[in-house]
Amino acid sequence: MKIDLLSKLRKQNPIAFNISNFVTVQDVANGINAIGASPIMSEEKNEAEAMIKISNSLTVNLGAFTEGQLDQIAAVTKYANQYNKPIVIDPVAVGAVQYRLDRCNELLDNINVAVIRGNAGEIAALADVEWQAKGIDAGEGDADLEAIAKALAKKRDCVVVLSGKTDIITNGDAVVRVYNNTDLFKLHVGSGDMLSSTIGTFVAIEDDYFEAAQVAATVFAVAGEIVANRMDQPLAGSFGPQLIDELHLISVADVEKHAQFD
Amino acid sequence: MKIDLLSKLRKQNPIAFNISNFVTVQDVANGINAIGASPIMSEEKNEAEAMIKISNSLTVNLGAFTEGQLDQIAAVTKYANQYNKPIVIDPVAVGAVQYRLDRCNELLDNINVAVIRGNAGEIAALADVEWQAKGIDAGEGDADLEAIAKALAKKRDCVVVLSGKTDIITNGDAVVRVYNNTDLFKLHVGSGDMLSSTIGTFVAIEDDYFEAAQVAATVFAVAGEIVANRMDQPLAGSFGPQLIDELHLISVADVEKHAQFD
Amino acid sequence: MKIDLLSKLRKQNPIAFNISNFVTVQDVANGINAIGASPIMSEEKNEAEAMIKISNSLTVNLGAFTEGQLDQIAAVTKYANQYNKPIVIDPVAVGAVQYRLDRCNELLDNINVAVIRGNAGEIAALADVEWQAKGIDAGEGDADLEAIAKALAKKRDCVVVLSGKTDIITNGDAVVRVYNNTDLFKLHVGSGDMLSSTIGTFVAIEDDYFEAAQVAATVFAVAGEIVANRMDQPLAGSFGPQLIDELHLISVADVEKHAQFD
């Protein structure tokens, strides 16, 4: 794994355009800034093309869209494809709500995406696999997680990051598993959103999206694990600011020392 | 007071649907998650029924709605009534702005609510009592706070939580007062919103809404007091993350030890 | 510089109406509250007049508006002029996106503003000076920053705060430079937004907007510097809550001790 992509990211300081959900947008912006990219946000269709032109990647979080925003998302993603800016999709809660699944699949039918990042329930829903999802959480199920991730990667011809206790990253053929984790990620609303936007910062500076997604997932998981290991007890609220601290402080050497993957 | 409802909450991990205001939504989501429920948010009318069906309660915060969102709020609350999911209403600033008061009363005329949570100025406005409100703050007045809370509870046939230095919880007849408090609640924007959404997590697991509201108010107030007592000086910014820390860490025994009510 | 305006602010506790961008709104609200004012937010045109009437100033952040919100912004700013409530404008990213520059200039053509607060790229764009802007960041350029700020102040007949390593505050003739700073401001998304809303709290209690803007910029910069000086390493995430802590704790004596300006 080319963990020194983290150095490249910080050197290039790419502009990461994010269509975020309103729940976690501030953490997402601060996370992007902390790791070494520059976040820009917009909900206005009329500046979609201008925003894409100055951006190096686009991350679309479908966590809390409205019908009106779908128009803007359609415009922004179309321009991203036209100007060859890689797209990361976060299909929040598509495993729990049919309406979200339908809208997300319509979007994916019309654009090319670089990476889809979701939990098991979300990835399973997009891959048309039966899965028990409960609200925004991952749910539980018996299906083979790697097979599900591969199926979606092949269906949508993209990299898939299925995040959970173990993060599974696949291009449809090869699979990388990242074992770093902490339960605090589940306790902090927006951890998944931040992981997706972190992937967005790496695809902005590395054309091999499979490699970029692996490194992003590993840096993010190691940063969370470092923060958690410093705590005597799980601090659900303090974890957020400290995770952003660590995304800025963490070095390539730190990641290489702690990363556990195969 | 059945403080061990907190254990029931954590065991059942209910899904708490929140229509939040955009100012404090991230704290609200993290607070819900920290105490032991799962937050879901949505502003899209087309998924209103699906969201209500997977939820165990609905909290509607009227802190920053637009005309367009009122349609969605009408739809969501109608489905909540239809599917018997209890509704908590937070009538932000209805004491300061007539437009908000009118819209809130129209909403309350059309639905059944389990709990209304507001400060003195907001509860007084909904109860048609003269009150001096200043912006989003509670204002000051001479009226009998308990009488005001009871009047609204009877008018709307629901539980009322009038929060302030002392929290007053009433079903229209009986009254419980919770004396735990800290000035930091007023310094932290969103404390009231978090209290309302905390009530939303308890009505999700307890059909006796009067009991649920009492316990929610007590757990929340004690958590804030514990955080404040650990501080040498009032830390207006750090209070937010630390309150979320404590909402996760606090035990039934902690609450029982510190709770002051009658 | 009349640094004891900070005492006046805390004594008067003005109501600061903010049209914020959704990315940083919670930090903005908490910062306003912490320094000693009361924030109110609204996106609904129908309550524009009522909100302005109870407010002492209006801060309009153009960080993430949509076409629909421009209607509300037009209404709110018109009422602010009508009721003589001073307006602070934060022209986010007008240096990077022509659409934003056009909308901002249209707005400025139709209203009188007290203060415009932006970074070098934003102020240059509004002053019609060539400048290299990169995303939301300030960009770099060779033009004389003071001349740019003065040009805009004269063009729009208002006070201009050009924030950066050195903050430049001008009424078009006189110039004050504030040298307090920390790199953490750039690492924390929303620092600029918070500075603008802090200016909004000072113009709410002081009719000499040039004086008010100087004091606001100085208090804010000193608070950030104090927080940064307490840290062993740059904590990009913890800086936010701690800055809000300090905005509440900082005294006139603290500011007088640390302020560096001429």
Automatic annotation (TrEMBL), chains A, B, C:
According to the UniProt entry, the coiled-coil residues are none
Keyword annotations from UniProtKB, A to Z: ATP-binding, Kinase, Magnesium, Metal-binding, Nucleotide-binding, Thiamine biosynthesis, Transferase
Q: Which GO terms describe its molecular function?
A: ATP binding; hydroxyethylthiazole kinase activity; magnesium ion binding
CC cofactor: Mg(2+)
Binding-site residues for ATP, renumbered to this chain: R117, S163
Give the record's family classification.
Belongs to the Thz kinase family.
Q: Which NCBIfam families match?
A: PRK09355.1
- UniProt-recorded name of the protein: Hydroxyethylthiazole kinase
